[in-house]
Amino acid sequence: RTRRWQVECRPDIDSFTPGLLALYESLKPSEEHNSKQKQLVDSLTKSVSKEWPNAQLHLYGSCANSFGTSHSDVDVCLEMETDTESTAEVLLKLADVLRADNFNNVEAITSARVPIVRMSDPGSGFSCDICINNLFAVANTKLLKDYAQIDQRLLQLAFLVKHWAKQRSVNETYRGTLSSYAYVLMCINFLQLREPKILPCLQAMEHTYTLNADGTECAYFDKVHELQDFGAENKESLAELLWAFFHYWAFHHDYRRDVISVRIGNKISKQEKNWTTRVGNDRHLMCIEDPFETGHDLGRGVDRQTIRILREEFERAASVLQYDDDPCVTLFERYDC
Ligand code: CTP
Ligand code: MG
């Protein structure tokens, strides 16, 4: 009897690549979107520099890591001296400044793991999250952007996976599923593990870039223009990779044993990370190591119920790509729970 994980993908899988590429193109942000985003950053810079003239503004997340769609929000990090003031105090003051400058729905969320001010821009309607001195986010944004420049299949795959996750309602961290950031790391790790490899492990190479975030060195090889041909030996098409991605998470991944790690370009055991039991709210049922904050499990919010939902969705996706007559449509059918 053939086991499900031994199934090979359908022989005509490549015929779906053009449709998937067209969908990818349609998800990319428009010129108009990019210029509106720039205007928002300009007006924000003006507001902030009145109160904090030395503050530096960094974009992070999908508006800067090249994984952004036209629906993505704008994530901003302010780098500044805070002297004796706590981050919460600065954020409350920032919220007042932004309200006075007529930004909409301004709200300081000071109790989150990464405290932020959230607001929306009346001009563009974009929603914007602002955090303070979160240099890990600045470093991981650059890391993702650099990975994206090595092989175009990463962006294509990750856009489709993010779109699928949003349509299927499994991109909601507050409900126990996964962040967009986690999905992109799953894609990177998956391409690091293909045979032949499609992506290298930049953190395991010579360190040409270093950023110190709260005493932790975030370092890796960032001369990615030298790696343009890295994945050339692997000829897998987008459709094949998308199927293999879902098939991996549906049938191959050892949820009980393994942690995926972009940092080492492989899997490591939960044992090695001491992620074998629940600690506080970290359940460690589905483990994705943050590349720089290596104590962070990006799957920590996944619980017994949501891990089941996620695995069922991975299985559905793999079987739609395997058997459906019109997988490019069926795969992304909306499911609201
Ligand atoms: N981030 C992080 N640690 C997390 C979650 C997020 O450091 N546990 C940072 C990352 O820099 C990430 C950014 O916050 O790129 C934004 O996260 P998220 O909203 O999940 O991803 P986006 O890429 O912005 O996706 P979307 O297009 O859905 O907005
Ligand atoms: Mg975002």
Helical content band: 25-40%
The main pleated sheet reads as: 5 strands, mixed
Element pattern in H and E? HHEEHEEEHHHEEHEEHEHH
> Residue-averaged pLDDT, rounded?
95
Organism: Urochloa decumbens
Main location: cytoplasm
GO biological process, one term: nuclear-transcribed mRNA catabolic process
EC number: 2.7.7.52
What attributes does this structure have?
binds magnesium ion, RNA uridylyltransferase, binds cytidine-5'-triphosphate, EC 2.7.7.52, three-stranded mixed β-sheet, 10 strands, single chain, 15% strand, five-stranded mixed β-sheet, alpha+beta, 337 residues
Describe the overall structure.
The protein is an alpha+beta fold and 337 residues long. It is 39% helix and 15% strand. The strands form three sheets. The protein has a five-stranded mixed beta sheet, with helices on both faces. α7 crosses α9. The longest helix is centred in the first third of the chain and has 21 residues, at 31-51. It binds cytidine-5'-triphosphate (CTP) and magnesium ion.
